[in-house]
Design goal:
Elements: E1 3-7, E2 10-14, E3 20-23, E4 60-64, E5 70-73, E6 76-78, E7 85-89, E8 97-104, E9 107-114, E10 122-125, H1 140-154, E11 174-177, E12 182-185, E13 188-190, E14 196-199, E15 205-207, E16 212-221, E17 225-233, E18 236-246, E19 253-254, E20 259-263, E21 274-280, E22 283-285
Parallel strand pairs: 10-12
Antiparallel strand pairs: 1-2, 2-3, 4-7, 5-6, 5-8, 8-9, 11-14, 12-13, 14-21, 15-20, 16-17, 16-19, 17-18, 18-20, 18-21, 21-22
The chain binds zinc ion.
């Protein structure tokens, strides 16, 4: 890739060999190249991250190509839908370069892309239940089982393409925790925060940010309390943590905007808030980069 520039509010990554990838345009942008992947099916805006576009840690890339194209990111297959839509993303600590392999007519071409690093905040949380910071030996079996069920839900690789409509906030309120921040709980360093926390009152309805199928429901996990995961297709999933009630069951199809749960403060929490997470398989993405509304 030679450079990243902004064109009419859209971001274009220019590759060697005359290939372009246009990131997340809400309308068609014509690019004349036999090798072009025109990313036109995604309504995710870029305004929140500026010139870095979405080739950034926590960022997401989606688009549209000929259905007979194969795309791999660092060797990992990127699912292409029957009408050519695809999506992938970069986790919190994604390395600064990656290889995208585009295969057409059995001929692979590799392209180097650059992923911008981010500076993450530090956040010190006080007042969570001490046992959720320093679990007792008898807690570890339960913790392992629960984390395995979350891993399994995030491995779902369905043909759904709910992600193409873009994402809305599941609740609206004050942002009390951001993606990526290094955290201490009751003074003890723990894993970074991978979601966005929205502080709202107990019982506030949680709405599906986009459509999908429910893949995990748990009334009270050790760390995350009432937990719900929804598959939006192609490995993109939402997780909702610390819920009070969950109104849907595994296998249910939900529509964008449908009420799926209510906000609680279960698990490792100091008060009512929604912790919303987005994954592309194991890559943890920043929900604040995805939402359509401010
Ligand atoms: Zn959180």
């Amino acid at each position: 890739m030679r450079k990243v520039s902004s064109v009419c509010g859209r971001y274009i990554a220019l590759f060697g060999g005359g290939m372009c990838i246009v990131l997340c345009c809400s309308s068609k942008l014509s690019i004349s190249s036999a090798e072009t992947i025109a990313l036109t099916h995604c309504k995710i805006p870029l305004s929140s991250i500026g010139i870095n576009g979405l080739f950034v840690q926590g960022g997401i890339v989606c688009g549209n190509t000929a259905p007979d194209t194969q795309i791999h990111l660092n060797g990992q297959r990127v699912r292409i839908s029957s009408n050519g839509s695809f999506i992938f993303g970069f986790g919190r600590d994604f390395p600064s370069t990656a290889t995208i392999t585009v295969t057409r007519n059995k001929v692979p071409n590799d392209y180097t892309i650059y992923i911008a690093p981010r500076q993450y905040k530090e956040q010190h949380i006080h007042g969570v239940p001490q046992r959720t910071v320093s679990p007792k030996p008898e807690d570890f079996k339960r913790i392992r089982q629960e984390s395995q069920s979350i891993v399994t839900a995030r491995q779902v690789d369905s043909t759904r393409t709910d992600f193409v409509t873009g994402f809305h906030w599941p609740v609206r309120g004050r942002i009390s925790g951001v993606y990526g921040s290094q955290r201490t709980y009751n003074g003890v360093p723990r894993r970074p925060h991978y979601g966005v926390d929205i502080a709202v009152s107990l019982g506030t309805p949680v709405r599906a940010p986009t459509g999908g199928v429910v893949t995990l429901v748990h009334p009270d996990m050790f760390f995350s309390g009432g937990t719900l995961i929804i598959d939006h297709g192609h490995g993109i999933s939402s997780a909702f943590l610390h819920l009070e009630t969950i109104n849907v069951a595994v296998g249910d199809t939900v529509q964008q905007g449908e009420e799926i749960a209510t906000v609680g403060s279960s698990g490792r929490a100091t008060g009512p808030h929604l912790d919303w997470r987005i994954n592309w398989f194991t890559q943890r993405l920043d929900p604040q980069l995805l939402v359509l509304d401010e």
